[in-house]
Inverse folding.
């Protein structure tokens, strides 16, 4: 989805009111309705039996949205309180008893660091133990003391400030509310030339046809699972099984085949191979059957085999983990679509950089990698980036620190390969997989907490996203 500056969003609001004829109160009502829907989704995801909401409002549009949403919740018999920033003694105020706190203090039109009661209110929100939700933008962002939100609900279009790497710690996940800005106005707005936000509206989950069969939805092949690393290929396979692919096959060393077969589950077809180092596998018949390949989860170091795949594979190929062992120049020679899925350390090794350099300019690093290889690059981490040649960067905001666990990357690789196997255009398939992976992580964290969730919880959460 196109991202815009604060001034561009104000102009879109103005045009919608003055040229399209939508009343300002209608836009505010739509914003508040979307905000309420997000709050209800948080209540459901976190299984909050007795929700109690606290809105903290300032004077501007954010405060207005908070006031209208507060009234809507009361009409739905949900406990809701509204505190005005100027009318509250923040030194004695307590957030005890509120399990969701909504920041409606300062909007995008604010300049300068928050002061006085606004600064006190921000500190109050950050001390509170409940779930923190920011309206449009976390109060104080890039101007000093800032609300640390778990979720930012932004109105109309996402703001450029929200997707920048330095905003990660403050915005949490980002949800965008459609308030009815005409499409032609959005298309006429320049927006950010570098990057866009992946939102639910960008996610393609096509309806399955009644007269379809398993062959309709593709056949994905996953290769990996060296001794001691069998869990990686099993998690990738289980994720592929949940991706919508019609058939899932796994190629793994013969010595671990029974372990992998049991871990993948009965739906996956698991085959053994004697050795990768000698390239003894005849893939001539394989290429006639499969529609996407994923190599790398638990594979071990076999650069010669990866080079062989890059030369011969005629279908979309995902290279993950151990498969990221050949030069960018070698990857660039592949005739098939290739998607690389490195975390920052793997990215640094692959492109001969320091990890600190990668993290210092994630946008620039991802863009340069995509142009250098001519392939799609997924730079994982907080605000995962999907980069492709001649495309704007696609920034993802779903996901949370609970996903910083072994196996999370294997799950993404399997999910992505399964989406590609269904014939979805590679850049679109990659954006969809990254968004779904992060959203599953958010659902898993809500259910099991960030500390306790595991990578396999992500796979279970896919069932709620179909």
């Amino acid at each position: 989805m196109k991202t815009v500056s604060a001034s561009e969003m104000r102009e879109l609001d103005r045009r919608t009111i003055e040229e399209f004829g939508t009343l300002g109160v209608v836009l505010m009502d739509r914003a508040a309705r979307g905000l309420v829907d997000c709050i209800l989704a948080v209540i459901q995801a976190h299984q909050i039996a007795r929700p109690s909401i606290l809105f903290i409002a300032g004077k501007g549009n954010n405060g207005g949205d908070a006031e209208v949403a507060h009234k809507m919740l009361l009409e739905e018999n949900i406990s809701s309180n509204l505190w005005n920033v100027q009318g509250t003694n923040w030194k004695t105020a307590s957030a005890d008893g509120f399990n969701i706190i909504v920041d409606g203090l300062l909007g995008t039109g604010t300049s300068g660091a928050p002061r006085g009661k606004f600064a006190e209110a921000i500190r109050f929100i950050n001390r509170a133990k409940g779930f923190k939700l920011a309206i449009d933008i976390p109060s104080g962002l890039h101007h000093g003391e800032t609300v640390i939100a778990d979720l930012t609900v932004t109105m109309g279009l996402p703001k450029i400030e929200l997707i920048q790497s330095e905003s990660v710690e403050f915005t949490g996940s980002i949800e965008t509310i459609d308030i009815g800005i005409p499409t032609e106005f959005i298309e006429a707005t320049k927006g950010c030339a570098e990057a866009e936000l992946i939102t639910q509206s960008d996610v393609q989950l096509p309806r399955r046809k009644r007269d379809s069969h398993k062959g309709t939805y593709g056949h994905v092949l996953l290769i990996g699972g060296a001794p001691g690393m069998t869990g990686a290929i099993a998690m990738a396979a289980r994720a592929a099984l949940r991706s919508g692919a019609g058939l899932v096959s796994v190629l793994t060393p013969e010595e671990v085949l029974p372990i992998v077969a049991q871990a993948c589950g009965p739906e996956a077809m698991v085959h053994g191979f004697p050795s990768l180092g000698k390239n003894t596998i005849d893939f001539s018949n394989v290429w006639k059957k499969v529609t996407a390949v994923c190599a790398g989860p638990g594979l071990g170091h076999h650069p010669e085999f990866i080079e062989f795949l890059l030369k011969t594979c005629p279908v979309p190929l995902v290279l993950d983990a151990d498969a990221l062992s050949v030069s960018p120049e070698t990857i660039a020679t592949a005739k098939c679509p290739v998607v690389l899925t490195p975390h920052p350390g793997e990215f640094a090794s692959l492109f001969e950089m320091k990890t600190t350099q990668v993290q210092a300019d994630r946008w620039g690093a991802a863009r340069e990698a995509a142009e250098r290889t001519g392939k799609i690059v997924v730079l994982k981490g907080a605000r995962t980036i999907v980069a492709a040649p001649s495309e704007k960067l696609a920034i993802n905001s779903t996901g949370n620190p609970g996903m910083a666990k072994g196996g999370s990357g294997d799950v993404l690789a399997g999910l992505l390969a399964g989406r590609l196997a269904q014939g979805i255009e590679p850049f679109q398939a990659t954006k969809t997989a990254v968004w779904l992976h992060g959203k599953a992580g958010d659902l898993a964290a809500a259910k099991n907490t960030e500390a306790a969730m595991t990578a396999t919880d992500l796979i279970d959460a896919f069932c709620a996203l179909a």
In short: The longest strand covers residues 247-253. The longest helix spans residues 426-448. The two ends are 21 Å apart (CA to CA). The chain is about 40% helix and 15% strand.
